[in-house]
Amino acid sequence: MTGVAACGGDDSDAPPVPTATSTADAGAAGGDTESEITNGSKPPSIAALNELVDTAVDPKIPSKDKIVLVEGSEKDPAIFDELVKARAENSDVDWVLVNPVISAGPNKARVKVRIETAGNPPTNAESTIVFDDGRWKLSNETVCNLLGLYQVKSAMCAA
Question: Is residue 159 in some structural domain?
């Protein structure tokens, strides 16, 4: 569980819960997640980001089609297969992105990852998304920290 500390600070307060407003915002966009993900003028909704995460860990989608989801993943496209396998083998570890999504300057935003492990209270960790090559992606740092939860190493992560 040492990877959790690397993700960011521990937030012992109750984890933020997606609000009706964020759900309504996603619905107001017509449910068009792709247009949210490709709009560089503002960060996407939490619903759009979690759909991106769901795609990244979907075993039915080939790894080559997931490279556009994570910054720097072209260095190790097979990492998506490792992530899918690690999540399946560690069902007692779960994580999801939670509100708020906060702009952190041009082409960058912050979001929390709520990490839950069996027998432990949820922990919120800082993470980032980046606008790169015309779309919002999970940052390399975020994904590398999540891989640390499963003790998985990748060529896309700094040693």
Answer: no
